[in-house]
Design goal:
By secondary structure, the protein is an alpha/beta fold. Helix content is 20%, strand content 30%. The chain is elongated, with a radius of gyration of 33 Å. Mean pLDDT is 77; it is low at 1-27.
């Protein structure tokens, strides 16, 4: 190993210990010192365009679509059910299609569950328990 390579190794080590301008003076390469550059700023990703948030809901169903996938509660809240909505097995009704049938038979249908509130105020149900009186 030559003296020059040892110096270069030491100079590399010194880059962590000395300010950039001082290192440039010790380099011996004849290059002019350059202005240190700042690394690019790290920014957070932009916020999502939706304001979805998890909510709990409960109430009496007053209107149900024929498929049972759209429910309107007495409070005016609209709850939509999807194929992946989980029905609580301890409830009286275990499918969306059973809800409009129960209402048509004059039964009082109550629901409770949790879901995601959408920007329009409706709730997309993740899990639901349906009971009749």
């Amino acid at each position: 190993m030559t003296h020059r390579s040892t110096f270069r190794g030491t100079a590399v080590l010194l880059t962590f210990l000395l300010p950039p301008l001082l290192f440039a003076a010790c380099d011996g390469g004849g290059s002019s010192p350059t202005e240190p550059t700042n690394p690019p700023a790290v920014t957070a990703p932009p916020p999502a365009t939706t304001t979805a948030r998890t909510v709990e809901f409960q109430g009496r169903v007053v209107v149900a679509s024929t498929s049972g996938r759209r429910l309107e509660l007495a409070s005016g809240t609209v709850v939509s059910l999807r194929a992946d909505t989980a029905f609580d097995a301890t409830g009286d009704l275990l499918s969306a299609r059973a809800i409009p049938s129960a209402l048509a038979a004059g039964r009082v249908v109550r629901v409770e569950g949790d879901g995601v509130r959408r920007d329009d105020g409706s709730i997309r149900a993740r899990a639901i328990k349906v009971e009749t009186d």
